[in-house]
Each structure stands twice: as C-alpha cells, then as structure tokens.
Amino acid sequence: MRYGTGAWPWYLLALVVIALDQYTKGLASANLEYARPVAVFSWFNLTLHHNSGAAFSFLSDAGGWQRYFFTAIALAVSALLVAWLYRLQRGQWLLALSLALVLGGAIGNLWDRLVLGYVVDFISVHYAGYYFPAFNLADSAITGGAIGLILDSFLGRPAAGSEEE
C-alpha cells in the first residue's frame, strides 16, 4: 500500500525543516556581522556568509546565471521529491524521513535564492586552522537526508511479490 495522501506527516516534517532553517537564518542575519566569526567552541563559530553558488560556494563567482540554474534544479528536485514521497510504499519510514529532510533543506535554500539572491550560511566548523565551508540548517538536513538515502539503499527491501512483502 502506498502513502498517497498519508504522506502528509512527511510533508509536515519538510515544512518544519523549512521553518527552522528560515528562523535560524533570520537570527543569524539580524545578529551577526558579515564574515566576522563569533566563537562558540574552540572548533565551532557562527559566521555570517552569503553564498551565491552551490555547495561549498561552487560557481559563486560565475556572474549571476548560476542563481537561475540552481533555482531551476531545486524546483525540479523538489517536485520529484514531493511525487516520490506520495508514491512510497507504507513502512518505508527511513526512505520517507530521508526524502522529507532533503525536500525541506532544498526548499529552505531555494527560498533564500529566490528572495535574497544568495543562500545565508552561518555555521562554521574548523580544526587546527582547517575550515569546513560555512553551512546552514538546510544544508544539514540535506546531508542527513542523503545519509539516510544511502543507509536505506543498503538495507534493501523484499522484491515485489515476495512472501516478506
């Protein structure tokens, strides 16, 4: 049996991710000075950055066309994820959770790109002078969802028509 209209809790989770992402980005934008780190721990800073590119600022200096390119990709992927969640078999909770996290993260960053023209990043992790590129809650949700998708692919499901189904 498919989730169909029963997929609404997963869509609600995606909305919660979007809301938390936008809330934290708003707090960061209102309370942090651009590119000025605020140390939280020896390995963790809050540092406001605006990313006009993709992950890890890929294509951030490409001249502006990338905004529309990444917007189109995010819209297409989001539509695909909405349909995929709707068509999932009941009981595929890890896959549904993963898709909902990716969907919420994708839309959270899409909103920034549409409204601001860039994505707000503010989480900075570093160690011994090596800095991981700044990121946000949407990026974290996408990463968590991607890990869940990988785990789900390894767990496998019984073949259609098998007795375990």
Automatic annotation (TrEMBL):
**Alphabetical UniProt keywords:** Aspartyl protease, Cell membrane, Hydrolase, Lipoprotein, Membrane, Protease, Transmembrane, Transmembrane helix
Active site (record annotation): D121, D139
Q: Which InterPro entries match?
A: Peptidase_A8
EC nos = 3.4.23.36
What is catalysed by this protein?
A: Release of signal peptides from bacterial membrane prolipoproteins. Hydrolyzes -Xaa-Yaa-Zaa-|-(S,diacylglyceryl)Cys-, in which Xaa is hydrophobic (preferably Leu), and Yaa (Ala or Ser) and Zaa (Gly or Ala) have small, neutral side chains
Q: Where in the cell is it found?
A: Cell membrane
- Enzyme category, top tier: hydrolase
> Per UniProt, what is the membrane topology?
Multi-pass membrane protein
- Function recorded in the entry: This protein specifically catalyzes the removal of signal peptides from prolipoproteins.
Name this polypeptide is given: Lipoprotein signal peptidase
Which organism does this sequence originate in? Parahaliea aestuarii
